[in-house]
């Protein structure tokens, strides 16, 4: 079946540091890939997405590239801010409507 | 973007009582809604898929008689936790999407249930 694996957290960085959160997936078809962010006590918000190989999703300084050859969708940001502190979920959506989520990575950015 | 409204955001109930959580699609007709449960510091676990006008499809291990799902209209799905126990305390989130596999899912704000 489909699955998503993320690097374990928590990740603690200083403000303006470079961020990478690794995500790899297993899927039988050609899934769409997503990064969602969850702030404390809230639901999930879409951060970015990519629907086919080599697509790059980007939003708010975050980027992720759909790498079919390595089945990866790593999240990066060049300079994190305190306000980026949240839990980040990598997810995929295959032919059906359901989503499969990774375990989430908690990011804490210190001033 | 589409908006999904979930209510209540927080609820505290006594053991043995039932709690209803509502999930409304405000911008489009949602034939399918998904209900997730999230334990502290863990990912979302799909509980069931709610289909308008028909019975919900439950994931393995989820008690359908305990977690009653009703999807009576194209804009409203409800999850009722019956005979709640402290171990049912969790964060419950609904979501829906507009059909194609490449479209994003829209999530409700989540409901923090505490059973005392």
Protein structure class of chain A: mainly beta
Contiguous helical run count of chain A: 0
Largest sheet geometry of chain A: 6 strands, mixed
H-E order of chain A = EEEEEEEEEEEE
Low-confidence stretches of chain B: none
Oligomer: heterodimer
**Protein chain pair with the most extensive contact, residues per chain:** A-B, 25 and 23 residues
Cα gyration radius of chain A (Å): 13 Å
Helices and strands of chain B: which structural class? mainly beta
- Give the topology string of chain B: H per helix, E per strand: EEEEEEEEEEE
Report the β-strand fraction of chain B as a percent range.
over 45%
End-to-end distance of chain A, in Å? 41 Å
Mean pLDDT value of chain A: 92
How much helical structure, as a percent, in the residues of chain B?
under 10%
Strand proportion of chain A: over 45%
Rg of chain B, rounded, reads 13 Å
- Runs of chain A with pLDDT <50, length 5+? none
How far apart lie the N and C ends of chain B?
37 Å
How many E strands of chain A?
12
**Main sheet attributes: strand count, strand direction, barrel closure of chain B:** 7 strands, mixed
């Amino acid at each position: 079946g489909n699955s998503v694996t993320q690097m374990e957290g928590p990740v603690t960085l200083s403000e303006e540091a470079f961020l990478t959160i690794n995500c790899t997936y297993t899927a039988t078809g050609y899934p769409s890939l997503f990064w969602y962010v969850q702030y404390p006590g809230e639901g999930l918000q879409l951060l970015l997405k990519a629907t086919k190989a080599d697509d790059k999703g980007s939003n708010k300084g975050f980027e992720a590239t759909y790498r079919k050859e390595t089945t990866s969708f790593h999240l990066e940001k060049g300079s994190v801010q305190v306000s980026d502190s949240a839990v980040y979920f990598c997810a995929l959506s295959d032919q059906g409507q359901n989503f499969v989520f990774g375990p989430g990575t908690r990011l804490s950015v210190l001033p | 973007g589409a908006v999904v409204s979930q209510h209540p955001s927080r609820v505290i109930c006594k053991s043995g009582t039932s709690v209803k959580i509502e999930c409304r699609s405000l911008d489009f007709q949602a034939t399918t809604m998904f209900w997730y449960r999230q334990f502290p510091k863990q990912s979302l676990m799909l509980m069931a898929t709610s289909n308008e006008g028909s019975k919900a499809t439950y994931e393995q291990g989820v008690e359908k008689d305990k977690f009653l799902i009703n999807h009576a209209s194209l804009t409203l799905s409800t999850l009722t936790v019956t005979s709640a126990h402290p171990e049912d305390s969790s964060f419950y989130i609904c979501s829906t999407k507009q059909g194609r596999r490449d479209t994003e899912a829209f999530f409700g704000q989540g409901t923090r249930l505490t059973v005392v």
